[in-house]
Amino acid sequence: MKVGIPRGLLFYHYYPMWKVFLEGVGAEVVTSPPTSKEILDLGTKSSHDDVCLPVKIFFGHTVHLAEKNVDFLFIPRIVAVEREAYTCPKFLGLPDVVRNTLEDLPPIIDATVNVKKRDKSPLKAAIEVGKLLGAPMGKIKSAYKDACETLWTYRGLMLKGLTPDEAIEVIFNGKKLEKKQVNTDIKIGVIGHPYNVYDRFSTLDMLGKLKELGAEVITEEMIRQEDIEHHAQFLPKRLFWSYERDIVGAAFYLIHKKKVDGIINVVSFECGPDSLISELIQSEARRNGDFPLMVITLDEHTGEAGLQTRLEAFVDMLKRRK
Ligand code: SF4
């Protein structure tokens, strides 16, 4: 049984966990390749104009996988991952929007995870998926345990400075990858949703460009969750969205502790949550002695030359300040 996982949105948060679980219950996992112009074109043609770039890219990956004749598409409905908050509304309706927008799709595995409801816990969702794929209960529970352990390994590797792609290589291909030591005194925090920060195509390889300019990059995934939680509490009111609260907490941590020389906040055009949290991050930067901050807004028309110029100017400015 082939199960396709589109390489977009929450792929960057959970892919190793999902893969270990699905293989543990007997499925063969197929993923779409890294985002490319063809995948973006597939996504923009098949989605509405007014959705954010990451959702368009997700649509492109979904269409690509559907053309590969997989038996199922794995698009879980992630509603809440903590009791006090929800995820972006786009995640709540993702399987429905995909199903009702795209044609000729294989069946979608859309188990719901909502930790606010007992019958929608991650384990319950895993049991639902395992049963659908015909696995016995013992196998489902053991696959779930392995999947949870893999998620912690994945997060531990990123905490040490690996990108999601590098961590995935270490976990599944046994590669010995370590964070390369960068000989530089310029550190830049690149803060935003991982599906923006780490998608080399949509960011025009921003992380690679910054390294070429001699900057060391710190991302949210390299910051301990305790530090993120602690600094998110400086918000006057608790944020309603989990992943966005983490982004704000990570940015506040870098600003308050002066862990970096400047921050690049990567946001998506047409993203409601990003437009709110970006304001919060900018205002915190202003309150902390005009901490250097640059906002880069991504859409399908972001141009390479413009981005390169802005990155060069930002890095030059940070070097002059030093
Ligand atoms: S948080 Fe923003 S970028 Fe992410 S899916 Fe929601 S609208 Fe799109």
Bound molecules: iron/sulfur cluster
Instruction: Please outline the major beta sheet.
Output: 4 strands, parallel
Provide the spatial order of strands within the biggest beta sheet.
2-1-3-5
- What portion of residues belong to β-strands? 5-15%
Distance between the termini: 57 Å
Low-confidence stretches: none
What's the SSE pattern? EHEHHEEHHEEHHHEHHEHHEHEH
> Overall pLDDT, averaged?
95
Counted up, domains total 2
Task: Tell me the Rg in angstroms.
Answer: 20 Å
Shape label:
globular
Helix-strand makeup class: alpha/beta
Number of strands: 10
- Portion in helices: 40-55%
- Total helical elements: 14
Task: Please describe what this structure looks like.
The protein has 322 residues and is of the alpha/beta class. The chain folds into 2 domains: 2-173, no CATH class; 186-321, 3-Layer(aba) Sandwich (Rossmann fold). The protein has 14 helices and 10 strands. The protein has helices spanning 11-24, 37-46, 53-66, 89-92, 94-101, 122-132, 137-159, 164-173, 194-197, 206-212, 225-232, 242-256, 272-287, 304-321, and strands at 2-5, 28-31, 72-74, 77-80, 108-109, 112-114, 186-191, 215-219, 262-268, 293-298. A 4-stranded parallel sheet has the order 2-1-3-5, with helices on both faces. Strands 8-7-9-10 form a 4-stranded parallel sheet, sandwiched between helices. Strand 1 (2-5), helix 1 (11-24) and strand 2 form a beta-alpha-beta unit. The protein starts with a strand and ends with a helix. The mean pLDDT is 95. The structure holds iron/sulfur cluster. Iron/sulfur cluster binds next to helix 3 and helix 13.
